[in-house]
């Protein structure tokens, strides 16, 4: 018995040592297949091999190569060990015709070539599990005009996983519009779960464009005759779409295509009560539907003599509104009158092309005449006439009166200090110290940096009161010393030649100002006209 044991072990181990990859086979899940639908190529080899042992690069010449999955299995039967590595590759042919799956190399072995017939899409009467549809909002457009590209994926089976690629097109910008939308739809008595997606396409030049469709690859759950569920590889490619981009009607005019355009003006306070030295912020907002922010022309705010201008902020952004990409440009600047009298703000014009009506239009802010008031005179000191000195001696009474006055002033000072120290009587400094931006504001002021102080003060005002200009903050707090200090700060920030700035007056005014309760969210200047 002992002598027979090595023979038994050798008989068991010999197949393991001598076994190797001796056979490889490639098959198709179906043949023929409609154009645009996926067919699964399965490659099986009797060995345990790594995933990269199969070279599938030759398939990309004639097919769209989708998901590739690799699985391995091992079986032991009567001391015989069998190992299998299986590749499953989704292939899609976009056009009808006769194709050949080329030989593929696997660990030194080659698969046999396979003939594949691709028939016209829709020629099969068999109900399809997956549909992929594409649509353009218009087949003609102008350069820079938005064309909406819609994609709808319909899946009849339960979807386990899937990936839908984006469409592609040369010489154009593509941006996805919002999130995917899910729903249900019935086609020829069969119920499908739908996934819808939209893109904005902006062609750059005149010519004929072909939009390459997206490709879907995924897995669905199927049920066999015995009631067991298994997964099935599925794939689909949509139909390509053609787009004709027309020439610009008039090259002598500025080119800004849009479905709609508006030009608005906003002020931080009513300019009807404007006075010399008082800074106000003027904001222009240009909004265009069906174009990109990069296409908007620069907004310029012409300023007449008698006004000093200090740029405040500039902003460009894109957002989605009612399924269309909307571009918006905001330009703000602080204006300070230097003399009293009438001033005329010039007209602002924006020429644009209405893609719905097919003609040029002009958006206009009309010229505006403003009357600037003079600075109110400061109250003059009242000079009291003194009576001629009397030759009569007053005795000690003047000294006694002066001593009484001094005692009264001392009592007043002590009372004021005690009142300032009571709880519940807080100035802006003690209340605002709870805000995160207050420390940065104090550091900027004490560092005598007017620019940083202005930025920090505006950041604190936005956080606490949702205001977007320092002039609006001054109007909210209604503290004259603070108004004067903010005016001086703005003049220092926007001066052409920098000078030394001492923030003591600003800090003292902020410390003495009484803060009202913060307004409800959405009451700030920009919140009132933000789309």
Based on secondary structure, the structural category is alpha+beta
Mean pLDDT: 79
Q: Please state the overall shape, judged from the principal axes of the Cα atoms.
A: elongated
Tell me the β content: 35-45%
Report the count of strand segments: 30
Number of helices: 8
Identify the notable features of this structure and list them briefly.
single chain, 531 residues, alpha+beta, five-stranded antiparallel sheet, four-stranded antiparallel sheet, 8 helices, 30 strands, 19% helix, 40% strand, disordered C terminus
Explain this structure:
The chain has about 525 residues and is α+β, with helices and mostly antiparallel strands. Helices cover about 20% and strands about 40% of the residues. The chain is built from 8 helices and 30 strands. Helix 6 runs antiparallel to helix 7. It is elongated. It starts with a helix and ends in a 19-residue tail after the last helix. The C terminus is likely disordered.
Topology, please?
Blueprint: H1 4-18, E1 24-28, E2 33-34, E3 38-45, E4 54-55, E5 64-77, E6 80-92, E7 97-101, E8 105-106, E9 109-110, E10 114-119, E11 130-136, E12 140-141, E13 147-155, E14 158-164, E15 172-176, E16 181-187, E17 190-203, E18 207-211, E19 215-223, E20 229-237, E21 241-245, E22 257-258, E23 260-267, E24 280-289, E25 307-321, E26 324-337, E27 341-345, E28 348-354, E29 359-365, E30 368-372, H2 397-421, H3 428-432, H4 437-446, H5 450-465, H6 470-477, H7 480-493, H8 504-512
Parallel strand pairs: 2-10, 12-21, 22-28
Antiparallel strand pairs: 1-3, 3-6, 4-8, 5-6, 7-10, 8-9, 11-13, 13-17, 14-19, 15-17, 16-17, 18-21, 19-20, 23-24, 24-26, 25-26, 27-30, 28-29
